[in-house]
Write a structure and sequence with these properties.
This protein is mostly beta strands. It contains 7 helices and 16 strands. It is about 10% helix and about 50% strand.
Length: about 350
Amino acid sequence: MLKITQVTIIICTLLITIGVYGENYTGDFLTNGIGARSLGLGGAYVGVADDATATYWNPAGIAGVANNYQVCMMHAARRSGLGAFNYVSGIGKVFPALSLGVSWIRAGIDDIPIYYEVPAFDPSISADQRKNNAKFRPRDSDFTPSGYLNDSENAFVLTLATRVAVSQSWWDNFGKDSLPPEFLFGVNAKGIFQSFSGHGDLDENTSTFTNYGSSGLGFDAGILMRLPDFNALFGLENVGSLALGMNFQDISQTTLTWNTTSTFKESIPSNFNIGLAFSTQRIFGRDLILTYQWQERYAGQSHIGIEYEITSPMALRVGFRDSRLTTGIGIQLNKFRLDYALLVGDLINTHFLSVLWTI
């Protein structure tokens, strides 16, 4: 007698916690990226990182946010409705030279149906028996779930960052009217938690399974160097600005420990990201951003993005995330910025919506 509960558990384990079988995919939900603006740019945001989403892309970036406080919320939806992905963050200056950020990332699949023994799926029943005898055929009552499983993966992140700027008086020694460069440094400490929970008429084996979970502690470090203009170094005026960002994720190879009898451990591999961003107002007097990012994980991936301000409150974006097309749009409404992004997938397209509130 085939037990559908066991099949469901196996499938969910392979899809959600595939890291047990392949270390390179451990903590994979943390590689999705967050913020509709950055995702519309193909995920090429390490060199930009100029808002609250920097807690994910480059922790150093929050030190460069001029406003006192920012809050960002994001929700991702697939046309299939399978799974949920959400993000919330807040940043602020606790001291003139120190910025603090907190964020929460959650991915999961809720209400996975659990079916107990279904007579029609008994492998001992032949095709002729199902054809000639109605009692061997599936019935609607066979497919009434006896219970449900929920998979939840969460990361809670604490970010600290500081900013060091070259003094204007020293920079003026170069002999050109120019703004000095700035250097931003930031670190993340993050707690990662994965769990299964169930509700309904679950049997003893399934109830035991729903008590499984894992947890771990990881660290990231980021650097962001910004050159506001090229006047002093190259004598080029009104060309634009340049930024170079680096993010070292899971620098200690974050280890997740499962609460199973064997206390199985799996590690999130370290990942190095480097990004370059160039911005200018030379194209019809509107802001244009060209950005590129390379990441080490998954044998190396490239991300490219372009953002162009078509009107004062509206910007269009297009990007490539490891050859996959992304598009997006952003609208600034007073203290709020509304962003939308579309990630074109092989089978399923994913829609991202986020709002940024500047206080």
